[in-house]
Amino acid sequence: MKEGGSRPVLNIQRTWDYLAIDIISLVLCLLGLGLVAMYWSQMPEKVAAHFDAAGRPNCYQPRAVLWYLSGGASLIWVLFTLMSCFPHKFNYPGVITEANAARQYVLAMRLLGWLKLEYAALLFFCVGSCIDVTLHPDRALNSPVLVAFLISILGTVGFYLSRLLRGSRI
Description:
two-stranded antiparallel ribbon, 61% helix
């Protein structure tokens, strides 16, 4: 261990569950890109890109928006993966000491891993929904699923934030 600024720099080993979450989120990103590629030739110039509360499209955008959504998921995956290599640089809700650094870093890295998975799944759902509703105008976005994704993301942040706060008191 060596000092990085005022925080210890530790080599945190990634566990099998962390790696599994990472692989699943990467697969979802790649599936999103594959979905766009597979349906690209069938897409009209404008695709459903925004939905009302009932899940009906109320705004159409150029079909390139599908690449932005699926590419955005891939970009988030890459950025969060790079960020997780430097947990000693994160902002934490408490003081990081020699005694609590390893636990705090692991929690922060797990938070990033779960958020990668949730964002990848959310954006895959959004891409699939935009394609589905565009190709089948009689269908609607499954709004409860979208709400469930948002609750899941907020719940994950809340869960890990509470654990990080508890861990900073060591």
